[in-house]
Amino acid sequence: MRPIRANKNPSTKRQADACRSYDDGVIIISGWISVDPDSRDDYLQSCVSVVEQARASSGCLDFALSADLVEAGRINVYERWESGESLDAFRGSGPSDDQAAMVRAAEVARYEISGVGPA
Which residue among 35, 80, 82, 119 is least packed, with the fewest CB closer than 10 Å? Predict the structure, then answer.
């Protein structure tokens, strides 16, 4: 049997956190944003720095905005935070005016999860 080697992938800590138990629960932000299909790539590109900032923020366990595989104008939203306080500290003023102008519709909700363990 070969020894397990440390993974140098920057998301390794985030993957380890996903398997950890959170007795106080976590906050999940999940949903979708609809933009013009021809503008989706531009919208996502404009969000790269936001995703990087979120992932570097204290209390962020995961943060992703991704193109939907079926609907051309849909962007899937997923965030996982250690606490409401860490989420609120990151939030700030929300999307830029340019990003907000591109959004046709959205359905994003906050879920307060009371307990988490491995699947």
Answer: 119
pLDDT digits (tens, 9 = 90+) for 2-25: 333 344 455 555 555 545 555 668
> Residue 102 and residue 44: Cα distance in Å, rounded?
11
CB 75 within 8 A of CB 66: yes
28/111 Cα distance (integer angstroms):
5
Q: Is the pTM of this model over 0.85?
A: no
Percent of the chain with pLDDT over 70: 78
Under a CB-based contact definition with an 8 Å cutoff, are residues 89 and 58 in contact? yes
Contacts of 96 (CB under 8 A, 6+ apart): 46
Q: How many other CB atoms sit within 10 Å of the CB of residue 6?
A: 6
pLDDT at 48: 95
d(CA 14, CA 45): 22
Q: How far is Cα 116 from Cα 83, in angstroms, rounded to an integer?
A: 13
